[in-house]
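Predict the 3D structure for this chain.
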Amino acid sequence: MDTTSVDVDALFSGETQFIIPLFQRHYVWTLDDQWEPLWDDIMGKIRQKLSDEHQGQHSPHFTGAIVIQQKTSNVDEVKQYEIIDGQQRLTTFQIILCALRDICKSYGFKKIKIQTERYLRNEGYDSNDEQQYKLIPTDFDKDAFISLIDKSADSGPQTMHEAYGYFKNKIENYVDRDEQKTRRLFRSIQRDFGFVQILLGSNDEPEKIFESLNARGKPLLQFDLLRNNLFLRARIEEDRDRLYRDYWNHFETPYWETERTVARTKIALSELFFQHFVMAKLGAENVTPLFNVYQRNLAVNNRIEYELSELKRYSEVYQEMTNCSLDSEIGRAMLFYEIFDIATVHPFILFIINELKVSGPEFSKVLHILESYTMRRLLCIKRGTQSYTQFFSRLIRRLKGRNFNLGNFISLLSDETANATKWPTDSEVKTFLTLGPVPYGVNKNVIRYILYRIELMKREENRFLETGTLVFDNKLSLEHIMPEKWQRTWSLPLGIKGDDKLVFESKDRIYYKDLFRSEYRANNPEWETEPSENGLINESYKLSFALANLRSNFLQSIGNLTLVTGRHNSSMSNDPFPEKKTSLFQNSLLVMNKEICQHSIWDSPQISQRTENLFSYFCSIWPSAESFAENIT
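Done. Predicted structure below.
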């Protein structure tokens, strides 16, 4: 290994060519983090040189390290170097020089233009010969870069074109058609930016030397470290491109750069996949630092192709999972976890598919079991998915190396007794559905989703029902059938004639506020002397008050909750049932709302009966552990 200090002139003035390997990440520098600070540095160096106190002094600005390794080439070929680290810096200076060249051409600064051109091209090569270029980017950026050098029509990714536009604008504003200022800028770029160039020998190990970019660079992801390590360990140059194209090329798409929010932190999908891949392989919940854990436990000496094939095999399943496509069984199942932002189940599903090779009807059953386990916990356990990472990692370890059996799998889940991991029973589910989300702090989104799935099941039961596609989104909102403020507009029946059931059918009505006023009078000795029909008014008021208490108890029950679509006038929500039924439910396309409209009155008995009905649907969609165990086929 040979280490020297170089500047832009030393890097690009000779007949050399720097090649960025296919496996290196593409150009990712951005305006705020790199381009603007670099331009500020350029301006700072120019101001420094113009200052009297620095006349005659030369102290290059340290720009970072460049790690390169010479490639084998024929005598008549340009000397080529593979860039191990520093490609973002070299590419950016090439873009700056390209912008400066074009400005010099437009202003007629011929001499500076010619000098700049020699940093971009090697002389004496045909226009179709790639040896003419000082830098060859990855395939991803190649078209964009070549179009800048050749001044052809813009092509390829826009990042390089945006960088070119930024520096071109800055240079034009600074030089302002002044040739002296243009030459000053060119000299500063040539001489004032120093690099430490590390030239590796044939016996050096590039994967041991490779490290993250300097502070000015865009930090490498753990996934970037993995990619570079794998391909730098692949020593045979002619195999690298094949390995890249066969196993890694599909990672170089915008999909894997998509960011997801996990624990309030944005993380690239590629990074999240890498984490879940290692967790699935090891059954470990703590896999940080991620790349180091991979190196210690999963790197296989001289079997790079195996490692790459495993990553590709897992990633294809992972992409299908995270796409949540309705055309895929895995995608449809994962949509449930996407809605509730539960990514902690992904390693386990990767393990089930890729390691245990569970497939077909058995795999469908596993997905059903997992969803039931999860939904019941979301409903009955506060922060029901909080311990999922530890739980599923432990489950992977317990199943690893064994022949998969549905009965054993159900037992592993149902045998859990701790609140953090138990599978709630039918009795627990019924309690939460009856008392409703408010007393226990259940996320209302969970209740909303339960009603949504029950609505879908009701639609499936009626094949002749013509309705549009129902999507679970924010347009579906929860609505109390009996309003939360029922006391203001929903009257109570009064007068029972000795039969409790007649309370609910009485034509005599009283409002809640009057009930309290009358009850107070009923216990006033002076009022008791007033005549009352059949002597039953006192008892009627007491039973009406009991009915008011019943309403309060049933108010938050799932039987009193439904879904409404689109906007509605919130003032209608408190209307008496006949008016509310017409305004909110009559024209609804939802089956459950048409069922509600069949009732002439809505009170505690109707709510209780509907709760029982919805509980039955819930258990059909998300059965208990006992039900699954009894129906294993």
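The two ends are 65 Å apart (CA to CA).
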